Amino acid sequence: MAKKSYGLTGGLDSKNWIQVKLDDGSKTVSIAKYTRVKNLSHANGRESFTIIDWPYAGKKASVKEISSNKSRFTWLTYESGGVITFDKSKKQLKFGGSKAVKTYTDPDNEIKKGTYKIWVPDYPHPLGDKYIVDSVFATIWFRLGDESSSRYLHVGNVSAGCVSVGTDGTAGSQAKGVHQRAKYTEIAKYLLLRRKNDKHCGILKVI
Length: 207
Known about the structure:
Elements: E1 3-8, E2 17-22, E3 28-32, E4 36-43, E5 46-51, E6 60-64, E7 73-80, E8 82-87, E9 92-95, E10 101-104, E11 114-119, E12 142-143, E13 152-155, E14 163-165, H1 173-176, H2 178-181, H3 184-192, E15 194-195, E16 200-206
């Protein structure tokens, strides 16, 4: 069931993140585009809010305001959790009625068949920087499985057991996969605007 919430849309950097200061003074952290928040207010040149989504769920934070009457957050509709299917033998990924997208997992550490939770974004992943030219969401990765898992859904050729969008793992696929990697933007938007709960935005079915 679709639900409404305030989500981050304004004042982001070129990679779709923004740094915010936690009110407990512990640190400055990054949150991704469409991160959900509540309890918005303006004071002393800053916009304050409470983060809804993991990994900072329930944390109060603030960021320099755009203006006293303009928010970085927009009232958005979040659909129910998404479903992404990865066919290992065909090296293809599909989501939400999409056409197949070339996708790969390292055969020496491949993800096993099964169903995995897809987590909301945790932090900017620098290994995605080289693919920003293909997708502005390249540093936004989605953890797969348990919270301790090191496997992610992401764009690019680096796999190490991850589900890597835009490549089939063959020689030359890095150069030939530009248009395939660009499809990661659609995948990221599909997931970022969906929620199963405050930790997960969908499931991955590996077949």
